[in-house]
Design brief:
Helix 2 packs across helix 5. With 157 residues, the chain is α+β, with helices and mostly antiparallel strands. Strand 3 and strand 4 form a beta hairpin. The termini are far apart. It has five helices and five strands. The longest helix has 14 residues, at 104-117.
């Protein structure tokens, strides 16, 4: 069954028609054309599809697009602005927390949600916040260091 919905993604409104069984991930990538959100496992175990929904990280592969109507959705494309990369993105680059890059969008958005809620996280807080995001390249040390470098500096951008 098809349904017309309106999604607010990165402060932009998108009026799209979706199959009622279409996931938010599919809608973001296929209907809206934002491909920064990646598809990994499709069962909510790897975190590559993480987006922020009303400021909270969610696996977009597990949520139906119709369920996201009326919510604020942020993808990795919504983080940088005309002045350049967001401080979290800069920290990931500066600390070598980006290798293959596949997990990076979801990891960065999970970090943003953490820092928005807790601008001074402990290492345990950071590890807990990114625990739903699997990285096969870095071993997490550089990712944790990147997020730690922002402790007390994040302004909720």
């Amino acid at each position: 069954m098809k349904k017309d919905i309106s999604l607010k993604i990165n402060e932009n409104k998108y009026n799209i028609t979706v199959d009622t069984r279409m996931t938010l991930l599919e809608a973001i990538r296929e209907k809206v054309g934002l491909t920064g959100t990646k598809e990994g496992c499709s069962v909510g175990e790897c975190g590559t599809c993480t987006v922020l929904l009303d400021g909270k990280p969610v696996y977009s592969c597990l949520m139906l697009a119709v369920e996201a109507e009326g919510k604020d959705i942020m993808t990795i494309e919504g983080l940088a602005d005309e002045d350049g990369l967001h401080p979290i993105q800069k920290a990931f680059v500066e600390h070598g927390a980006v290798q293959c890059g596949f997990c990076t969008p979801g990891m960065i958005l999970s970090a943003k949600a953490l820092l928005d809620d807790n601008p001074n996280p402990t290492e345990d807080d950071i590890r807990r916040a990114i625990s739903g995001n699997i990285c096969r390249c870095t071993g997490y040390v550089k990712i944790v260091e990147a997020i730690e470098s922002l402790s007390g500096k994040h302004d909720g951008e």
